[in-house]
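Data availability (excerpt). The following record was deposited with the supplementary files.
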Amino acid sequence: MHSCGILSSCHGTAIGCSLSTCWLKKERNSICYTCNFKIHHDNMLAFDIETTGLSDHDKITAASVYDPKKNIHETFLFHENKDPSKFLAYLDEADVLCAFNGARFDIPFIQKQWNLPTIQVQGWILKLVDIYDMCFHVFKRGFSLNQLLLANNIDCKTGTGKEAIDLALNQKWKELADYCMQDTIKTYTVTNMTYIEIPLLFANERVFMRNLEFCKHGIKSASDQIDLQNM
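Predicted structure:
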């Protein structure tokens, strides 16, 4: 087993998380790592957004927030230029945030759409638990939310990001709101697990994990050579 003490999403947050990497199983040319998360806060707010696309001119169509311990379960629709202040207040006031690819997509998109000051979004980053971003820094590989859900025996999403774009284009706002909230709840559920299996594809290759480096903070952990072909 190889382990390294990390800071959530590699952003220097005070949230305590540990990542233990362990070869768990090999099925269909894939490897799952087990991650052991220890989050030292009782309350964690999950959030997710939907957009009209990925380009600079696209807009946010919906956003959901979810924290069952505080009875927070709300979706906002922005097709009529609705004031985002309540949604943003949820992000500001949360003890801990969680999102899937939130550090790379959701938060930058939110900042751009509403022209938010950097100091505000930095506050969100510093309290963010983002499984995707953390694992991308460690393993240099990504995966979809559905792949993560499947690896942890959680039912998959009922739609895709492309379908969410189509829902907005066809003005199916209730369906869009339901889809956004479903993503948010599933993100909360998998992030809140004590042991999380991370799906990483390493088909028939020899992997060397040496001087594992978190570039932003210079945190390193040396590990031994791992030969997947002999597993």
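Summary of structural features: The first helix runs from residue 85 to 93.
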